[in-house]
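TL;DR need structure tokens for one chain.
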Amino acid sequence: SNRISYTNNNNLIWYNADDAAFGSNCLHQYNKNTGQTKVYTSIKAFTQVAVSGNKTYLVNIEGIGVLENDSVRYLYKYPKNAANVKPYDIKEISPGVLAVAGCNGLLKFTTATNKLDTIFSVNNACFGSIWKYKDYIFWGSYGYGYYIYKNGRIKAMPLDKNEYLLYCHCFVEDAEGYCWISTNRGLFKARLDDIITNFETGTTPIYYHYF
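>> reply
TL;DR here they are.
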């Protein structure tokens, strides 16, 4: 498989995968309750999935849309001359507001208006997974570290001494209050309280334990 998108609704796992029976790189849905897999043969573009309200939203290199039956009804299409817009993640960050991370920055899609806005971009960098912790939105980049976004404010977070955190992939919270961050050069963990305090005040250092 290429990349997996988890949803928090109905125990569904969405992923893109090659499938000899249906052609390459189709969107798949696995139901953890039933153990059944559904293949969306008409959705072949590299696709990420999020749920908002009672609708399933899809983003790919063509645009953003909703799943209807077995296909996509696009709500917003990227311009034909748009640069690299390959999306790596989509998450609902507040009711009716979806964040999209990809190679054209961190974007915000408002479902009520079908309007797409840019939250942040830097030097054509690609942004990866989006993770929501309370009111804080974490996202990593490929070459520019990780960032936190809250209420319109964006901050580039401190790096480790070797700057391996310049290339971040995903964020996972554990039961002991730590955030685990994967990178190109190993795995890090740091206290979430320290990260959040640093975002809010800029004074508390962040200790990163490196694996």
